[in-house]
Amino acid sequence: FHTEITYWDRKMQTDQITLNCREMCKEIAAATSRNIVHIRINYEAYLKELPSNKEVFIIRTKSLWQDWVTVNNLLGAAEDVPIPDSINEGKVINSQAKLPVTSNLSDEGRDSLCKLLRNEYILYIDLLNRAVNLSDDDIKSALDDAYKNCPAILESIGRNSYKISKWRSTLQTNENKK
Would the pTM count as exceeding 0.85? Predict the structure, then answer.
């Protein structure tokens, strides 16, 4: 499979490249893609220098401004940080907008993608467990989303994590009520 992509280069001129989709996927999985640079910067890149026992603050795109205010208050801000109140100032976040593309990913494709992202999910869950600014409900919601996307990952990791164990018992209780 091949695809052509038109993009703006640094000189603000359009250019077109043809990509071999299989090779591109392999490069993305190996974090060596020359065409999608931000793929190289994953959770592992941010966490490699951070001791595993350090607590962290997490600011989630999905609840950016709420998390922003919470973290600033935890850091001792004398008053709430001003939150932008217009679209141009950041009120609308990408993850909250209606995206034009819907998923037509097959179950097999989803499984492959989940296997590819397994290490990222493990690190993400580690971050959730270390976050000092997230409530149990925040973590439960994040784990629910992860489970919805890649159930096998949460079923196979985190057995020693109190927060994941607590989430699992809530999930089982909810399933038993059905």
Answer: no
